[in-house]
Amino acid sequence: MNQDIIISTEDRVTTLTISRTDKKNAITQSMYAAMADAITDYGNDDDARAFVITGDGDMFTAGNDLQDFSTGGGSKDEIPPVSRFLFAVRDCPKTVIAAVNGPAIGVGLTMLLHCDLVYAGGSATFNAPFVKLGLVPEAASSLLLPAAVGMAVANDILLAGRTLDAEEALRFGLIARIYPDAELQQAVHQIALHIASSAPNALKQSKLLIRNQREKVADQMHAEGKLFVAQLNSPDFAESVAAMMEKRTPVYS
Fold it and tell me: What contacts 60, CB < 8 A, 6 or more positions away?
């Protein structure tokens, strides 16, 4: 297990905490691999009944670790760990809950579209700066985000880089409830306990009914993934990373 991913289980509730606070909980490929394994193990464990994803400290996640991805994100030899994680969340037969304890950037936002229940603290914000980084939307966000918040708001987020605060995210339907930051984890744990005590087969069948466009979502994820990998190897992305590291404005040809 990756040291930056903390897994704990209590009363049939498994909690995955992204804990890399010195890097704003940015996620590396090895972290994604650990997260994918944890979700898969949960889905296969008959004793596990609810799964919570959250962040350590005051950050949910800053998204992908760009330096890590710039050196290996374009591998074509195997399924990238980030894809394994996202498909693991999408394909999990049981309830996946997100407790968004702070800024959710990039994949921090798009993974929420595959979670069944999403709750946030009052300080949470939501941003998907893919175009700013020379990348394209991923995790079927080009399909699922417009369905969740409407085309106009989705375009404002994906194309213009709009950041939503927690109240906006609630109003647009991206999250279900807001809690004071200090109360979020306990409140979500109580919801997870309720899920864990509910009829498991009824939950599974209900999830199948609600998530009834799995093939369409998978097709969109594959289509986005091909473009995403291409952009990881593009001059746009290289310039975006260089400009960020050098703390300057990127210049695109």
Answer: 18, 25, 54, 100, 101, 102, 103, 104, 108, 124
Q: Could you read off the pLDDT of 18-48 as tens digits, one per residue? A: 999 999 999 999 999 999 999 999 999 999 9
Q: How far is CA 195 from the centre of its chain?
A: 21
For the chain, what is the HEC assignment? CCCCEEEEEECCEEEEEECCHHHCCCECHHHHHHHHHHHHHHHHCCCCCEEEEEECCCCCECCECHHHHHHHCCCCCCCCHHHHHHHHHHHCCCCEEEEECCCEECHHHHHHHHCCEEEEECCCEEECCCHHHCCCCCCCHHHHHHHHHCHHHHHHHHCCCCCEEHHHHHHHCCCCEEECHHHHHHHHHHHHHHHHCCCHHHHHHHHHHHCCCHHHHHHHHHHHHHHHHHHHCCHHHHHHHHHHHCCCCCCCC
Residue 252, token pair as written in the block? 């695109």
| Percent over 70 (pLDDT), the chain | 96
Between CA 89 and CA 140 the distance in angstroms is: 12
Rg, the chain, Cα only: 17
Q: What is the pLDDT of residues 142-152, one digit of tens each?
A: 999 999 999 99
Nearest residue to 83 via CA among 229, 183, 230, 211: 229
